[in-house]
Amino acid sequence: MKNFIQQNLQQFQKKCEEYNLSEYKILTAPKCYNKEVMYIQNPDFSNTGKGLANNKPADILLIIRKEGNSLEFEQTEFTKTYLAN
Amino acid sequence: MRAFIIFIIYLKTFGDRYTIAKAAGDKDMMLKEQTRMTQLSQKYNEFSKKAGLPTKVERLSSGISSKSLTNRTDGGIIKIQSPINSRNSYKGKPKAVYTLDVELNKRQKKLLEKLPKADSHVFVKKSEVTMSDLSALTAKTGVEFAMFTKSGKRLIVRGDNVSVNIDISAAKKLAKAGYRFTGHTHPGDDSNVLIASGDDYEILKTFNQTRSVTYNSKGDFMVYSLEG
What's A69's DSSP letter? Predict the structure, then answer.
């Protein structure tokens, strides 16, 4: 099942252009999402080995919200470093 | 819950007065009672929305028969014979368990009996448990649960209020035995509790899966995926 950015690809592409972010990096990044909000994340795979014993959220690179028919981007301190073109 | 009972009592009372006024042809009285019902319904809808419950008046009013409402005692005090029947329809629903302390359903209670403390685990048939059930258990207990699935069987593991004791080594053993990581729960009602940790993603890699789900205490969930 497609997530909401896959369902609104044209809009997503426009937003990436507006913010000078890489579509490919965002689309292929680890992410968690529901119908309204998506967190693009940067998990640390340095193999802590803790598994489900560790609940500390992975760094959030970008937040994408679906508001009505439009997509809104909310950048974080990590956005440009990891997702810029 | 008392608020719900009061809402219904007043709604029914205004409704009865409206019926009497209509029978008597008293249009002023009809308008007055109708206005009262409309205003009260609006307040009830707002309240239900905040409590996360359906706003259909019929569902709640079906729990109290007009008979019990007319069984008046001294001074017109209305005795409610039993709790609102429609409360039963919320049994086991995570949001209702969490916000209104509604009971778990029978199936969930049976499951919880087999998971009395942290690190307890149980094998059940796939058809006997869903992630929504685990969300209800989390709502009831305030602790995490994790679900792993293999063919027609599920393994449920109980955690504590901050984690489930399945490290990468344990995950590798489960993956090798053919299990898939279906999902797990985080206590709390904030959507922030659903944001995946680095190790949540690490678990996906261990199971060679691309995605899983996290549920909170209200039954809200997020999918998390390694890509796409």
Answer: T
Helices (H) and strands (E) in chain A, counts: 4, 4
**Helices and strands in chain B: count of H runs, count of E runs:** 9, 6
Do B196 and A57 lie within an 8 Å CB cutoff? yes
Which of chain B's residues have a Cβ under 8 Å away from the Cβ of A48? 198-199, 202
B208 DSSP assignment: T
As to burial, measured by CB atoms within 10 angstroms (0-12 exposed, 13-18 middle, 19+ buried), residue B117 is exposed
The answer to whether residues B171 and A51 touch, using CB atoms and an 8 Å cutoff, is yes
| pLDDT attached to residue A56 | 81
Can you list the positions of beta strands (E) in chain B?
Answer: 121-125, 145-150, 153-158, 180-185, 211-215, 221-225
* pTM given for the model: 0.71
Q: Which of A3, A39, A58 sits opposite B198 (nearest CB)?
A: A58
Set of chain A residues whose Cβ sits within 8 Å of the Cβ of B142: none
ipTM of model: 0.90
Option in A34, A37, A51 nearest B168 (CB): A51
B interface with A, Cβ–Cβ below 8 Å: 144, 146, 159, 162-171, 184, 186, 191-192, 194-203, 205-206, 214, 220-228
Mean pLDDT per 10-residue interval, chain B, length 228 residues:
69 72 67 77 74 59 43 46 57 94 95 97 96 97 97 96 91 96 94 89 92 96 89
Looking at chain A, which residue has its C-alpha nearest residue B203? A51
Chain A residue numbers with beta carbons less than 8 Å from the beta carbon of B159 are 52
Q: Give yes or no for a contact between B110 and B99, defined as CB atoms under 8 angstroms apart.
A: no
Q: Are B126 and B84 in contact (CB under 8 A)?
A: no
**Residues in CB range of B174: below 8 A, 6 or more apart:** B148, B155, B166, B181, B207
